[in-house]
Amino acid sequence: MKFAVIGHPILHSLSPLMHHANFKALNRDDEYIALNIDPNHFHHIKDIINQSQLDGFNVTIPYKVDIMQYCDEIDLLAQKIGAVNTVAIQDGKWIGYNTDADGYIMDLKQNCNIDYIKQVLIIGAGGASRALATKLYDLGCNITITNRSQNRLSDWKIPTEYIALSDINKIDLKQFQLIINTTPVGMSGFNNEMLIDLNHCQKDTMISDIIYNPAETEFLKQAKDLKLPYFNGLGMFVNQGALSFKYWTGIDANREAMKAAVIKKLNL
Ligand code: ATR
After folding, report:
1. Angle formed at CA 81 by CA 13 and CA 208, multiple of 5 degrees
2. Which of 5, 85, 131, 263 could form a disulfide with 101 if both were Cys (CB 3.0 to 4.6 A apart)?
């Protein structure tokens, strides 16, 4: 079978490497390529994909919303999130899914008992924030979003509390059982300013960052120093890929092989 990730730019995507590690571990001779789609050519996406004879593909920045109009069907969670990161092609029909949110929740469950998580604070209000917030809301959590501006929340389909990022250190963080960073702050090559002071959290507040490179952002280092439980975005990245593979093939991916390939590549 043949798969791809589409995006722009796409050069640094680790998805091909990660998926090939899975194919190898499962003794499959599938192929997974990276397709850089120029925004000026995106309206030809049906032809581009058809010519590549794919069985499915992942979608990354900046096309997770734009791809939706080309799907024949969109799964309910992806509709609610308003973004698709996985397309399965079955008899020429495009079916859109979002595996980011489920990938995150799977990893969250590995790291803590999510029954105790009721109040969640999410830093950032972009696509990743929306995916996680929607899923956590569906699981019964109350969601507070902190962001530089509120206008990003205007078309969200779930209710949220909003607090301006500039005011975040004025509120009582003890109310939250989970705090997630979804901004690129702390990412390799990005600035590393401290967006939030975790000093006043409960001792067992779970701190999570969807960044996995570096393995420990300043945000996570702060959690570590304060002896708070924490985890990074590697599990989410691996899980979203594994779930995509499952949608395409019906087969469980070898997550350990996928994870090991990413760790090796990034020297994590
Ligand atoms: P993704 O799809 O990965 O979530 P995105 O949609 O570009 O990416 O969203 C990035 C989020 O990080 C946004 O909430 C953005 O805040 P704004 O809405 O105010 O732009 C946030 N973000 C990016 N850079 C930031 C910074 N230096 N400080 C704080 N927030 C930042």
Report:
1. 60
2. 131
Amino acid at 162: Y
184 Cα: distance to centroid of ligand 1 (angstroms): 6
195-237 pLDDT, tens digit each: 999 999 999 999 999 999 999 999 999 999 999 999 999 999 9
64 tagged catalytic: yes
Q: Are residues 216 and 246 in the same domain?
A: no
Determine if the peptide bond prior to 159 is cis (ω within 30°). no
Query: Do 94 and 107 reside in the same domain of the chain?
Result: no
Is ligand 1 within 6 A of the CB of residue 144?
Answer: no
User: Does the pTM exceed 0.85?
Assistant: yes
Question: Which residue's CA lies nearest to atom 12 of ligand 1?
Answer: 183
Domain co-membership, 58 together with 116: no
122 lines ligand 1 (CB under 6 A): no
Packing angle of the helix pair 100-111, 234-249 (nearest 10 deg): 130
Residue closest via CA to ligand 1's atom 7 equals 126
Q: Can you give the CATH number for the domain in which 65 is found?
A: 3.40.50.10860
Same-domain check for residues 245 and 155: no
Residue whose Cα lies nearest atom 3 of ligand 1: it is: 128
Amino acid at 185: V
